[in-house]
TrEMBL record:
It comes from Desulfurivibrio alkaliphilus (strain DSM 19089 / UNIQEM U267 / AHT2). PANTHER family: HEAT-SHOCK PROTEIN 20 FAMILY MEMBER. The lineage of its organism: Bacteria, Pseudomonadati, Thermodesulfobacteriota, Desulfobulbia, Desulfobulbales. Residues 1-13 have a biased composition (Basic and acidic residues). This is Heat shock protein Hsp20. It comes from the Bacteria.
Amino acid sequence: MSDKEMKVQHKQEVQQAGEPTKPERYFVPAVDIYESEEAVHLRAEMPGVDKDGVEINLENDTLTIRGVKAANGGENERVLLREFETGHYLRRFTIAETIDQEKIEAGMADGLLKLTLPKVEPARPRRIEVKCA
């Protein structure tokens, strides 16, 4: 197997402008974005985040995804080895005017956030029939 076939991707940390007010680390979740005739589909990888830890906001055509990762281990447990990087997730996207913002849907399962962003009706491809005059 060559180096080109397999690459390790490390978590990318969010670079914030200014000085942070909280001592928390934010990572950029890896995403895949697909398009169909009816919608744009976004998949964001957010391991360790459950449904209640996800916050999605839409303001001024900017979609913001935040994920709060639950703490590892229980109250009565002592950490012996920790290799998972801890922190939260944050990513922002500008939403095109071709997206119907009122119909955006989201779901979370197995550490994967799935967003469906339906297109507005005029943005969908359609075939125009030629009529005889």
